[in-house]
Design a protein that fits this description.
Elements (H helix, E strand, L loop, with lengths): L4 H12 L2 H4 L2 E7 L2 E8 L12 H17 L5 E12 L6 E11 L4 E9 L5 E15 L12
Antiparallel strand pairs: 1-2, 2-4, 3-6, 4-5, 5-6
Length: about 150
């Protein structure tokens, strides 16, 4: 975990989000503007043809880009306003790493991108999104300021 209180607060928010009980994953924010999410694809995440469903790609790519963007905004929660996915290859049971990178913006609209890598470090998908500051103050979200989970 980073020594930066803002990044620590965002990591706590991610860890306590109910959706991450369904999609077990771990967020690390090594620096402002960068996010890394590790998770494992399991057979219960497959579509009928035996590979990971697109929701897995979207969830991890959006989260990585989102947290890279929100790491640049200390006061408010950001919201995804648009996100594009580019799927390179199907994913079976394996560990994946989503890497998010802030690209530009910090006042109202932010742009961030993300890459999804397999265990060999090969890209399996890529995403890019726009994120907008919401009126939701980070300090008002349980876990961000106080460390409770």
């Amino acid at each position: 975990m980073s020594g930066d209180p803002h990044l620590q607060g965002l990591e706590r928010l991610y860890a306590q989000a109910p959706v991450n009980g369904v999609f077990a994953s771990r967020l690390v924010l090594p620096a402002r503007g960068r996010a890394e999410i590790r998770f494992e694809v399991k057979p219960d995440m497959f579509h009928a043809a035996g590979a990971a469903h697109g929701t897995i790609y979207f969830k991890m790519l959006d989260d990585a880009a989102f947290y890279a963007a929100n790491s640049m905004v200390e006061d408010n929660f950001v919201l995804t306003t648009q996100f594009n996915l580019f799927l390179t290859r199907p994913v079976k049971s394996e560990r994946l790493l989503a890497i998010g990178q802030w690209v530009s913006g910090a006042r109202r609209v932010l742009i961030a991108e993300s890459r999804l890598l397999d265990e060999a470090g090969e890209e399996v998908a890529r995403g890019q999104g726009t994120f907008m500051r919401s009126r939701i103050r980070l300090a008002d979200l349980p876990g961000y300021s106080d460390g409770s989970a």
